[in-house]
From TrEMBL:
Annotated family: Belongs to the DNA mismatch repair MutS family.
Lineage: superkingdom: Archaea
Chain segments carrying region Disordered: 822-886
Protein name: DNA mismatch repair protein MutS
Residue stretches of biased makeup (Low complexity): 835-845, 853-865
Record function comment: This protein is involved in the repair of mismatches in DNA. It is possible that it carries out the mismatch recognition step. This protein has a weak ATPase activity.
Length: 924
């Protein structure tokens, strides 16, 4: 065929497939032409040559036939979908090329990633969202229906698929599509609309899993079925050949799981940090698994915490026994260390791509099961749920399959399955017979030279073989004329002559025949054996799952034992009581100061204040992570912990952290808040790390204030809210379940030491000046800022004292006018409740004395109504309270300056400006 012809064929095959690239077999190479050659050349650093023919020139890049897999893998892992056209000969001897499979990110069988490799499909009817997730490398197949697009996005984030098939409705719905895309790095592949049609999908799902299974697992969602149908059709069409290993359909309901929206999963850094690194994530910290299926399962557990206490208690029991039985645990982990990835081996067997060494891996891993049972028997683990996990797979069937493999395969089989030498003697009589005849024919040849020498008195005789001459007898020139008559000369060389005999030719034919027959039979037997393994896909998956589970449990126990974690007590929703809790990740790198946390029905909303960098956010995340770990079935970093099972964890973290990543806008912040206010329930845990910072101060306080009231009154979720709006701390006096806590800091001679201890009550200062100091603002500026602050505080105190009555009165920040105002204790409508955190006066924690007149804890003006305040206060106090405009302006600016958002230089300039304003206006 001419180049033109080959390229022409390439281009027309390319036309037929919707893959991004086409690799077409041309003899011993797979070739890419034209644009594809350029792409492949660039991506894989392959040499691109020019093939010219008939006046045209085409870029061309090729890879050797047997090297295609790694190149394919590299291309697919970069997000390309590659069609592979194989070449074959037709009955009539023509050469044909045809696309037999398309390798895509979600259908790559030869994956090297340790993580699951999910292919997902998403369909919607504008209302709910159907989702299917399948890992073709392990045969996992899960489907669900999510109520909203956000919920669907959360599931996508959980599964982290590599490829997503959007259903037909989504193709024109750019908004939904982009929300889904945000939750995943997967590549999106458009796939035939019909595959998602309800009737066709239902049929495909029933065909694949069996009608009775479909009924018994309760797959009654049309949307989920349609998504599943899409996945099945896609896997079939791409030709991965693994449908057989997809044996188990799992339907799950997001409501069985702890709700974790995509933002929360990201914020809690479950599997990667906010910067996208694996290292430093919760998973990375607690993962001590020794097998990749164990690692995958642990990751699955972490991203899918549960709500049912029975299953969790079972895991906790297992972890408890493993944690306390150090020797037995180490023995178990040693045994696990020898295990290969059985679920993946099952898929490779089913697709016909497993070689002999992989079947040996199956054999060896099957023997891990009895070894595990031995390691457990007679130890403290014997009565734990671990024993039950190990006894779950059909041990007899596993043993039989293992014996089959052990009896069949040679210990050190060759890499390719077509060159013979795969089987042990005694496995198959016909094969043994063939091998024996083959060997004896070969040994006849081996001894031929000696026999010829002896029988015919010839010296210098060798017997050899090459491609053109076949087997021959080579005789040195000096004795070449002494050869017997039946020798037929075939070649004369410089120093020798080559001969054949009829007998030799006969033997040669026999050897070739035997060789071929032996190869054919071995391959046939091998395929049978592999087929037998494939038929046991489900058994292998069971055993694989058991190994994974034991590994994941042992990993949790190892971490618990090594880090002093304890078993949490799980209760019905409500309380969260942590004694000496730590942050699971931070504690591994820091000398961590443990902290208590107590939340219950009376104390369900904690306002967390404290200086910047004091540990507020760590404290709150620690609460979320301890809750999450408890619902994973793990021990937790605390001296003791009682965890009321929650239905979801919702977080939103400070604009600052997110801004640093260039991700957050005020809009995003508000969307996250909105999602929390809509989705959280009384049984949820909500973590708010600053709300409202992304906008002007008054706006921000107002939103934070209103959100607090709404969460407290309507949603009633357990909430931890860290805020720098000190104003919010007065809410503790008015909302009965709100309490204040703060991270203590010690101030001495103007130096602040972070104690990292969380205590009840609000903090009363922002410590901004301390941060300015830390940031290197020159000493005179820092000192002067301290003076200014003191003066401002005094103004506040004077103002408070100047009420002219003996009733407690406080200066408050009026969010409406943006000015300091005077409010009387009685006029705020407060209910006088002084439970929980209000026991500590606002200034009680560090008491600088400036405002320390003991009158502040009446914290008034919740409604913040300027009119009411003004009307309710004596006229002389009004006069006293009125600051001169310069001071007010400075005060305003000081109030609204965000220290974190201002560079030291700017801060310095500001402070200088304030000083000069005050010097001019107020005078010293
Ligand atoms: P904030 O939210 O108050 O600004 P962070 O929670 O970000 O502060 O904590 C600031 C730093 O303090 C973190 O780097 C963290 O490692 C450290 N830290 C926080 N809590 C503790 C603790 N309990 N013990 C020791 N170090 C802590």
């Amino acid at each position: 065929m001419t180049t033109q012809g080959i390229v022409g064929q390439f281009l027309s095959l390319k036309e037929e497939t919707d893959a991004d690239l086409l690799a077409m077999q041309c003899g011993d190479f797979y070739e890419f032409f034209a644009d594809d050659a350029e792409t492949v050349g660039r991506e894989l650093d392959l040499k691109v040559s020019q093939k010219s023919s008939h006046g045209s020139s085409y870029p061309m890049a090729g890879v050797p036939l047997n090297d295609l897999t790694p190149y394919l893998k590299a291309l697919v892992e970069r997000g390309y979908r590659v069609a592979v056209a194989d070449q074959y000969e037709t009955e009539s001897g023509d050469l044909r090329r045809e696309v037999k499979r398309v390798v895509t990110p979600g259908t790559l069988l030869e994956t090297s990633r340790a993580d699951a490799q999910f292919l997902a499909a998403v369909v919607t009817d504008g209302d709910g969202v159907g989702l299917a997730f399948s890992d073709i490398t392990t045969g996992q197949f899960l489907v669900t229906e999510a109520a909203t697009v956000d919920d669907a996005a959360a599931e996508l984030y959980r599964f982290a698929p590599v490829e997503v098939l959007p259903g037909p409705e989504l193709r024109s719905d750019d908004e939904t599509l982009s929300r889904l895309r945000e939750a995943t790095d997967a590549s999106f592949s458009l796939f035939a609309t019909e595959a998602f049609a309800p009737g066709r999908a239902r049929h495909a799902v029933r065909e694949q899993f069996g009608a009775s299974t479909v009924d018994s697992v309760g797959l009654d969602s049309d949307l989920a079925t349609r998504a599943a149908g899409g996945v099945l059709a896609y896997v079939e069409e791409t030709g991965a050949g693994v449908l057989r290993s997809m044996t188990r359909l799992q339907v799950y309901h997001p409501s069985d799981l702890l709700e974790l929206d995509a933002t929360t999963q990201r914020n809690l850094e479950l599997t990667e940090t906010m910067h996208g690194d694996r290292s430093g994530s919760l998973f990375d910290t607690i993962d001590h698994t020794v097998t990749s299926p164990g690692g995958r399962l642990l990751r699955e557990w972490l991203t899918r915490p549960r709500r049912d206490r029975d299953e969790l208690a079972r895991r906790h029991d297992a972890v408890e026994s493993l944690a306390s039985a150090a020797l037995a645990r180490e023995r178990v982990r040693e045994v696990l260390d020898g295990a290969y990835d059985l679920e993946r081996l099952a898929s490779r067997s089913a697709s016909g791509s497993a070689g002999a060494s992989e079947l040996l891996s199956v054999r060896d891993t099957l023997s891990v099961l009895p070894a595990l049972a031995d390691a457990i028997e007679g130890t403290e683990l014997a009565d734990s749920p671990l024993a039950e996990v190990v006894s779950r797979p059909d041990r007899d069937a596993a043993a039989d399959l293992r014996t089959d493999l052990a009896d069949a395969l040679a210990e050190d089989p060759p890499k390719t399955v077509t060159q013979g030498g795969l089987f042990q003697t005694g496995y198959d009589d016909e094969l043994d017979d063939l091998i024996e005849r083959h060997e004896s024919a070969k040994s006849w040849l081996d001894t031929l030279a000696d026999r010829e020498k002896r029988d015919h008195g010839l010296s210098h005789v060798t017997v050899d073989r090459n491609k053109t001459d076949g087997y021959y007898i080579q005789v040195g020139k000096s004795v070449a004329d002494q050869v017997p008559d039946h020798y037929r000369q075939i070649k004369t060389l410089k120093n020798s002559k080559r001969f054949v005999t009829e007998e030799l030719e006969e033997k040669e034919r026999e050897i070739l025949r035997l060789e071929e027959a032996r190869g054919d039979l071995e391959y046939e037997l091998f395929e049978d054996l592999r087929e037998r393994v494939a038929r046991h896909a489900e058994l292998l998956q069971d055993v694989g799952r058991t190994i994974a589970e034991v590994d994941a449990l042992a990993s949790l126990a190892t971490h618990a034992a090594g880090n002093g974690w304890t078993r949490p007590e799980l209760t019905e929703a409500g309380a969260l009581d942590i004694e000496a809790g730590r942050h699971p990740v931070v504690e591994t790198t820091t000398d961590f100061v443990p902290n208590d946390l107590r939340m219950d029905d009376e104390r369900g909303f904690l306002i967390v204040t404290g200086p910047n960098m004091s540990g507020k956010s760590t404290y709150m995340r620690q609460a979320a992570l301890i809750t999450l770990l408890a619902q994973v079935g793990s021990f937790v970093p605390a001296r003791s912990a009682t965890v009321g099972v929650v239905d979801g964890i919702y977080t939103r973290v400070g604009a600052l952290d997110e801004l640093a990543q260039g991700r957050s806008t005020f809009m995003v912040e508000m969307q996250e808040l909105s999602n929390i206010l809509h989705s959280a329930t009384e049984d949820s845990l909500v973590i708010l790390d600053e709300v409202g910072r992304g906008t002007a101060t008054y706006d921000g306080i107002s939103i934070a204030w209103a959100a607090t009231e709404y969460l407290h009154n309507e949603v009633r979720a357990k909430t931890l809210f860290a805020t720098h709006y000190h104003e919010l701390t007065s809410l503790a006096d008015h909302l009965d379940r709100v309490a204040n806590v703060h991270v203590a800091a010690d101030e001495r001679d103007g130096d602040v030491t972070f104690l990292r201890t969380v205590v009840d009550g609000p903090t009363d200062r922002s410590y901004g000046i301390h941060v300015a100091d830390l940031a290197g603002v020159p000493r005179p500026v820092v000192d002067r800022a301290g003076d200014v602050l003191d003066r401002l505080r005094e103004e506040k105190a004077i103002e408070a004292k100047g009420s002219g009555t003996s009733e407690p009165v406080q200066a408050v920040f009026d969010v409406g006018s943006g000015q300091m105002k005077v409010a009387e204790a009685g006029d705020s409508g407060g209910d006088g409740d002084d439970s929980a955190g209000s026991g500590a006066p606002a200034n009680g924690a560090t008491g600088t004395g400036a405002a320390g007149n003991g009158s502040v804890d009446a914290a008034a003006a919740v409604e913040g109504s300027a009119e009411a305040d003004r009307a309710g206060t004596g006229s002389d106090s009004e006069a006293e309270a009125a600051l001169d405009p310069e001071t007010e302006a400075v005060l305003d600016e000081l109030q609204s300056t965000d220290v974190n958002d201002t560079s030291p230089l700017d801060l310095m300039a500001k402070v200088q400006a304030w000083q000069s304003k005050l010097d001019g206006g107020d005078g010293e």
